[in-house]
Amino acid sequence: MSVLLKNIIRFILLILVQVCVLNNILIHQLVSPYIYMLFILLLPLNIPRPALQLLGLLLGLTLDMFMDTMGMHAAACVAIAYLRPFIINVLSPQGGYEVTQKTPSITSMGLSQFAIYVTILVAIHNIIYFSIVTFGWANPLYLLLKIVLSTAVSLFLVLLYELLFFVRK
Amino acid sequence: MRNLIIFLRRYFNFFLFLLLEVICIIFILRNNNFQHTAYLNSANAISGKLYTQYNDVQYYFHLKATNDSLVAENTRLHNELRDSFDFKDTTNTIKTDTIKTYSEDSTHKLITSQPRRWLYREAKVIRASVNQEVNYITIHRGRNQGIQPNMGVIGPSGVVGMVRSVSDNYAVILSFLSKLKAEKSFGISARLKNGGETGTVYWDAHDIEEGIMEDVPKSAKLKRGDTVLTSGYGSFPKDIMVGIVDTFYIADKSKTSISIRLRYATNFSNLQHVYVIENLLEAEQLKLEDSTKKVIK
């Protein structure tokens, strides 16, 4: 399957899962499970940075359209799309990753590197999104708890996704 | 000039990032304004269609509960039909939509004649969120079926929200499970059934079953389980169920009002049908109030 087709399918799949399943789950008022941003995290390593940011905007606006949160998810998505290359740069070994391995994954980055990469970006997404939703830091403890718990649940979902679609090399 | 171009090229990604974020922030700010019509929302064709199909499946799982609540509601409505009508001077106008009362003796005289004030339209819920700070409900009924922004919305067991924006066939409702920082005023004007004291009910984003009622005067006699109804001042008719008093406390000795925690009558997590209420006399009332304000100024 070509990389383009794979990513289009992933986009649709993640939005559908987010809208039809995860948004209907109410575990606790503090926990909002999110997985759709995995689309940005799993885009090919060699994608141009402007394209990455525009895809982030597209993904965010698509979800915003479904959730009536105009611009909120988009802002968080654009931010992680902008920061992604920096995180990859910091985590990558000397001389970058091998060109043959095109997408960030456990096999191409190594388990610990990939885990750090996902954790940082998911956390950034949640920090930005929940700060926007609650309009600032009026109740820092509540906000912090919400960010931490939601990030934990999101990471668990990413783990499930990786187990489902794990490709042994 | 050349240096400027080099500078722009060098930091192109950063400027693109700033531009996109500014676009997002403009979207957010426009959307927060209650007066603005929210344009790209779940009332549009793509998401409306998806939510309709999704709901078609989900609907079957709730059929039994939905039927039960509809039957209960029908019984209640049969008993209360008269409440949708209001007194009016009938000496010089002819209204077709009126309810007439006749005396019960043999003369069968006309006693009163009341025009319709509240018009209920049923609507199917195709999406409802409860896990956000601000929750929206999308219904399959829009401008073409007579829905307008700012109409009140109730469910089978109590108040639900206010219509926020409408498209041709869908409408988005701002649910009362919404904590709006920008507008403190988004709450339900409510009244205690026993004493008649009024207050405002709003949500504090902690529990989807519980809200807070404030500005109730200290003199109110309260006990657990008291009923809270709508006051009839806003977009809702009088005496629609809001919730039941759970606990109450005086936050501050110096304050003159009591805070009440109440359990909502509506179960927001399994809404299937709602009723959108149109106030047929609203235009007249608003016109009068506006002209009065102008006189005072």
From TrEMBL, chain A:
This is Rod shape-determining protein MreD. The chain crosses the membrane at residues 7-28, 34-63, 114-137, 143-167. Keywords: Membrane, Transmembrane, Transmembrane helix. The lineage of its organism: Bacteria, Pseudomonadati, Bacteroidota, Chitinophagia, Chitinophagales.
UniProtKB/TrEMBL annotation, chain B:
It comes from the Bacteria. It comes from Chitinophaga skermanii. Residues 125-278 form the Rod shape-determining protein MreC beta-barrel core domain. Keywords: Cell shape, Membrane, Transmembrane, Transmembrane helix. InterPro entries: Cell/Rod_1, Cell/Rod_MreC_2, MreC, MreC_beta-barrel_core. GO terms for biological process: regulation of cell shape. The chain crosses the membrane at residues 12-29. Gene3D superfamilies: Rod shape-determining protein MreC, domain 1 (2.40.10.340), Rod shape-determining protein MreC, domain 2 (2.40.10.350). GO terms for cellular component: plasma membrane. The keyword Calcium does not apply. Belongs to the MreC family. This is Cell shape-determining protein MreC.
